[in-house]
Amino acid sequence: MVVLLGVISLSSFGQKKGKFTSIFNGKDFTGWHAYNKAGQPVSDKWKVEDGAMVLTARGGGDLVTDKEYESFELELDWKIAEKGNSGVMWGVVEDKKYGAPYSTGPEMQVLDDERHPDAKAGKDGNHKSGSLYDMIPPASFTAVKPAGQWNTAKMSIDRKKNKGTFWLNGVKTVEFDLTGPGWDALVANSKFKTWDGFAKFPKGKIALQDHGDVVSYKNIKIKELK
After folding, report:
1. How many domains does the chain have?
2. Can you give the CATH number for the domain in which 145 is found?
3. Confidence of residue 9 (pLDDT cuts 50, 70, 90)
4. Are 11 and 220 in contact (CB under 8 A)?
5. In this predicted structure, what is the pLDDT of residue 209?
6. Res 208 pLDDT > 50
7. How far is CA 23 from CA 32, 33, 69, 224, in A?
8. Burial (CB count <10 Å: 0-12, 13-18, 19+), residue 193
């Protein structure tokens, strides 16, 4: 039904299927925009500092890739501030009827597990770092590094094999079917069970969440799977 695994990193500049490419150049927000605001400047609350995208304050908005992805491996590094919360989503669709990326995109949780109250919410730890948010807890609660330190996350969304997998700092945290009875059961037992658009789109954008807390992302790479 469900298990563990995850992400790899790269960008959309000169992308080729089967090869990792960077989707963040470390200098500006080329290839990214604010959710539902394509063509508009990214908020000045998002900054590029020391080769990382940094949300410096609430109100920057969720960032999404310009490009859509269907079957891929993603890798990135993230660092969360104390008491911070964020997330990485896939299968995100932009439409005015959806208010945020999480309306359509499942999430790999990014959290200060020690201090943020969300770590104690949910069921069996399925809101902690490395979880499939509100659906599957991470296999290890000790893989995550403390707030203020960099973590390396990997995500694999393999449509051909119908498998999703997350890793955190080299540890496989969850694995799950992308469609079928196992996935349907996960959604039915989650907060998303009545959300019409949730996880309904095989192809979509990757999002980095503004949950109102300082968070940094860097070394964002992707490999499209055949």
Report:
1. 1
2. 2.60.120.560
3. very low
4. yes
5. 98
6. yes
7. 8, 12, 12, 12
8. exposed
Mean pLDDT in the chain?
A: 93
Task: Give the pLDDT score at 17.
Answer: 56
Q: Are 168 and 144 in contact (CB under 8 A)?
A: yes
The three-state DSSP-derived secondary structure of 102-153 is HHCCCEEEEECCCCCHHHHCCCCCCCCCCCECCCECCCCCCCCCCCCCCEEE
* HSE of 35, CA atoms in CB hemisphere, 13 A: 29
Tokens of 184: 């349907």
For residues 148 and 69, is the Cβ–Cβ distance under 8 A? no
Helix (H, G, I), strand (E, B), or coil: what is residue 182?
Answer: helix
* CB-based burial label for 179 (10 Å; 0-12, 13-18, 19+): exposed
Separation between Cα atoms, residue 174 and residue 192, nearest integer Å? 18
Which pair of structure tokens corresponds to residue 43?
A: 């908020």
Residue 133: pLDDT above 60?
Answer: yes
pTM of this structure: 0.91
Q: What is the CA radius of gyration of the chain?
A: 16
Buried/exposed 47-77: b ≥16 CB within 10 Å, e otherwise? bbeeebbbbbeeebbbbbbeebbebbbbbbb
The residue written with tokens 């809101």 in the block is 127
Segments forming the whole domain that contains residue 132:
2-224
Query: What is the average pLDDT across 61-76?
Result: 98
CA 120, 171, 93, 210 dihedral sign is positive
CA 141 to chain centre: 18
